[in-house]
Amino acid sequence: xxxxAPKGFEAAGVAVGxxxxxxxxxxxxxxxxxxxxxxxxxxxxxxKANPIIWSQQVIQDGTVEAIVLNSGGAxxxxxxxxxxxxxxTAEKAAELLGVSAGDxxxxxTGLIGMGDEVFxxxxxxxxxxAIAQAGGDGGxxxxxxxxxxxxxxxxxxxxxxxxxxxAMAKGAGMLAPGLATMLVVITTDAVLDAAEADAALxxxxxxxxxxxxxxxxxxxxxxxxxxxxxxSGITPTxxxxxxxxAEVCLDLARQLQADAEGASHDVTIEVVHxxxxxxxxxxxxxxxxxxxxxxxxxxxxxxxxxxxxxxxTTDAAFDPYDVDVWMNGVRVCTAGGxxxxxxxxxxxPRATHLLIDLKVGDATATILTNDLTHDYVHENSAxxx
Amino acid sequence: xxxxAPKGFEAAGVAVGxxxxxxxxxxxxxxxxxxxxxxxxxxxxxxKANPIIWSQQVIQDGTVEAIVLNSGGAxxxxxxxxxxxxxxTAEKAAELLGVSAGDxxxxxTGLIGMGDEVFxxxxxxxxxxAIAQAGGDGGxxxxxxxxxxxxxxxxxxxxxxxxxxxAMAKGAGMLAPGLATMLVVITTDAVLDAAEADAALxxxxxxxxxxxxxxxxxxxxxxxxxxxxxxSGITPTxxxxxxxxAEVCLDLARQLQADAEGASHDVTIEVVHxxxxxxxxxxxxxxxxxxxxxxxxxxxxxxxxxxxxxxxTTDAAFDPYDVDVWMNGVRVCTAGGxxxxxxxxxxxPRATHLLIDLKVGDATATILTNDLTHDYVHENSAxxx
Lengths: 385, 385
Hints:
CATH superfamily of the largest domain in chain A: L-amino peptidase D-ALA esterase/amidase
CATH architecture of the largest domain in chain A: 4-Layer Sandwich
Strand content of chain A: 15-25%
Order of helices and strands of chain A: EEEHEHEHHEEEHEHEHHHEEEEEH
Oligomer: homodimer
């Protein structure tokens, strides 16, 4: 179901040969209303793909009729020809749907630098086919069409009293979103205006996708889009809607983490008693990006020294000699010195919990990351993506 | 020869069982004068090992009589017991040499959290043995005693008209110095005062060790020490001395890069036409720390898209659509679009050259890094260090 779970949406996923596997590679999600509200957040990478540049303009007025997504090519750094491809895709969709091209979002994912004449022809064909096939049962096919190195499609649905939120996501590498992540499309039939949709989306992504840092590499094509049909006729409170949206976003973030390229551990880094939430995030992210720590987790080695060395590179408030570190429930470092022996820690489960107690304040934050494995190196050296 | 090449220095390296291999693990370098000038730069990691905390006090007055170094344990996060071990080591050396403990520097390297009673006893024994054996031919043994995962000892000598500089270094992992790197001891028989030694050392490390970023992980124990005996009786100009010192530092930085754990490529990232040197360093370092770029180099994949994605995360002045990227002499990206085909680039040699032309100014900087390999993951997951 995914994006077609809420009332008022149609979707499809079709295969036009952008993927060498022959699998689905172009998806469309259409908002049939009555509302045509949209909100989106984008990668903060200054090197932005053509679809990002286009979509940032489209979202300005808070109106979105449809979104077209393709895998098999990022259309990033493909020059003015690539931008025209994005523009033509929106024009094609608009023409077929009888709407304005300025209300059609575009997303692409795949190899940077990929976006030639063949790519353009296939994307335009896919857009035409997808719109022709779009229906209320197309959510699953759409979620499969945006997969790249993903081993499984990511979907999420939350149902409340009379209204619901549906969503799909792709992502398995370059997972270090800054303000957004990967390709995510979220739909809802709740009644919201553009400002409410934008506020709820930013609040939800801020503590879900933005806290996922699998490999420290920020993508050029990240986009999270929320489309609002209002077809339920129900207007939830801002608190209720944001809470439900945050639940969907965190569910998808966990799915992205669980499917990260080559990973053998899903590491939850919980930083507590920080002076501020920013400090907690900085500490968690620094540890999440430390290759030595990540390789140690792969080796089931509770190497807390690498954790402290990573914390030491931050500007966060802490006393190096008053920090506690726990791994999977065992305190391995107390007050900046050794505590339980390494043998006491079992790091064999995929789910790994690292708790860092900074002992200076009341703020907390949780960062999601993965370990650094042979398979990560293999996937990212043997295949261009 | 290394640190005993210049006149006025004695050194030794002895084995006391800190290394399970039974190889040399404690080194000493003694300045016999007539000058006893010293300068040092330290890791900027806020999580500092006990020897760093001690040495930062010792160097305040610009006088250094001797330095004691051990491998086989970092004596970092070992509590007050660990600090007392460092203090006792300096006291022991001072007593045997008839000098003040406040003029004896200490360096340690090895596993963080390692520094118990057995460690202390071995370090004290090693200090005693090394001082007893110290002589003008001890430079090689000293350079071997500070090795950890290094596959070879790192030494460098520069000879000028009547004076010389000798040096030794260790380092193969956690290579992302901030103001310093690894353990490095440099000696000279030129005549300099403490302020001149300090200025020359900072100028030289700033563009050598500080530009090395092998794996993005900053150590807790980095220290670069310069010891001045003045035994040649010759006073070079500040320019001549700094130029010679910079040559030694860059030579050692290249040796560290060439021996980085598990690396199969030595990557020189040259950033040109940047708006400022800081911008050039930021861009080079961002690329050097991008795991996807590093894995691509391991796979001999000229993936310039990952280079641009890394540049896009910086605050440096540049236009994403006016950047050129060259790999091993082939321009693979022009003005933010594809140029020469990937087949045109030969990435099989270990020496790899990445040139990034930002086209906005006149500043330049070169960052040295390595690729991300299966062997890096293996070495840092299978062994605790």
